[in-house]
Write a structure and sequence with these properties.
The structure is a single chain. With about 350 residues, this protein is of the alpha/beta class. Helices cover about 20% and strands about 25% of the residues. The chain contains six helices and 17 strands. The strands form three sheets. The chain has a nine-stranded mixed β-sheet with strand order 2-1-17-16-14-3-12-13-15. Strands 5-6-7-10-9-8 form a six-stranded antiparallel β-barrel. The protein has a two-stranded parallel ribbon with strand order 4-11. A hairpin with a 5-residue loop joins strand 5 and strand 6.
Length: about 350
């Protein structure tokens, strides 16, 4: 298939610039996987589509406020650092801008001297390996002086950093939020559990590659970025028990979906494990784990709309998106939600 097959027209005003005041007041487009029939609801109605014995799998990663602005020692030049991947105890791979001011050996200070960094290496792709110096806890410092790495299509500032976190976040490491989970509230999760639906957690640290555009015309030529995941034993056991008892495994978000399918594709199947995945799911892929999917509305020609098309079917997906545009749904990270079951 061609990249252009996954294009759709989206008026700019439908790109959500801020989260709604109440997380679960967002709209929900339910799509029947078999018939493609559409229902327009609100996310607080999600219980109507869940059954006792089902299990929801949530990604409990926590987004790092990993955008830092450093002052170069000696010149006072301001350089932006975007933390990508931790490579050692105090070393991170970063994107820097402007890069020419972050040569090997140059040093920077952040937060009026609360954090220091030295560029150790310039990689072939232009990224930098940076070593940080600090007192205390690095992640606490990031919370204090870092900014959220909001996607490029969000141009308004975010007043409350926690609104770009799920209410069940736990393990720091993401450069972007698993946005399908932003619609859940503690009260809604409690209702779900009280209705006999089990909840399990996986961790997949979302990389900035999730926003990387597909450049290849033939989608099979696209090279996916790699992301780190962890499948705990209790979640693996819950999935196996759910399947055995005839319940459905419902992935909350494409990140949970990619984790579950990555593990299911291994020779040992669903089990406790940890690793890196660069799985690319597009039409023709045979799903081995998930039975239903809760997700947001994704960018045209993105790998994520390709994943949705693989699960729902191409024609049904493009029709659902066309309808969502016509019905003025809110799109992307802070936008509305879709459930396919």
């Amino acid at each position: 298939m061609k990249k252009s097959d996954f294009f759709y027209d989206l008026p700019e005003e439908l790109i959500a610039q801020h989260p709604l005041e109440k997380r679960d007041s967002s709209r929900l487009l339910h799509v029947d996987k078999s018939s493609g029939e559409l229902e327009h609801r609100h996310f607080s109605d999600i219980l109507d589509y869940l059954r006792p014995g089902d299990c929801l799998i949530l990604n409990n990663t926590r987004v790092l406020p990993c955008r830092l602005y450093g002052v170069k020692e000696g010149t006072g030049a301001v350089v932006e650092f975007l933390l990508l991947t931790q490579r050692g105890t105090h070393e991170w791979e970063c994107i820097t801008g402007p890069g020419k001011k972050a040569r090997e050996g140059s040093r920077f200070s952040f937060g009026e001297g609360k954090l220091f960094a030295e560029v150790m290496e310039v990689l072939d792709d232009g990224n930098r390996v940076v070593k940080f110096e600090f007192e205390g806890n690095f992640f606490n410092l990031l919370d204090e002086i870092g900014q959220m790495p909001l996607p490029h299509y969000i141009t308004e500032s975010l007043e409350d950093k926690e609104r770009y976190q799920t209410v069940y976040n736990k393990t720091p490491g993401s450069a972007a939020a698993p946005t399908a989970g932003l619609h859940f509230t503690p009260e809604l999760l409690e209702k779900i559990k009280n209705n006999g639906i089990n909840i399990g957690y996986v961790t997949l640290h979302v990389g900035l590659g999730t926003f990387r555009p597909v450049k290849a015309d033939n989608i099979e030529d696209h090279k996916m970025h790699s992301e780190h995941y962890w499948m705990p034993k209790e979640t693996a056991d819950l999935i196996l028990e759910t399947k055995k008892n005839g319940g459905r495994v419902i992935a909350v978000g494409t990140t949970s979906c990619r984790t579950l399918e990555s593990v299911a594709n291994q020779p040992e199947g669903i089990r406790e494990c940890e690793g890196a995945t660069d799985i690319f799911i597009y039409p023709g892929y045979e799903f081995k784990c998930i039975d239903a999917l809760i997700t947001n509305f994704h960018l045209p020609e993105s790998t994520l709309i390709m994943l949705v098309s693989a699960f729902l079917g191409y024609d049904k997906t493009m029709n659902a998106y066309k309808t969502a545009v016509e019905e003025r749904y809110r799109f992307f990270s802070f936008g509305d939600s879709m459930m396919i079951s």
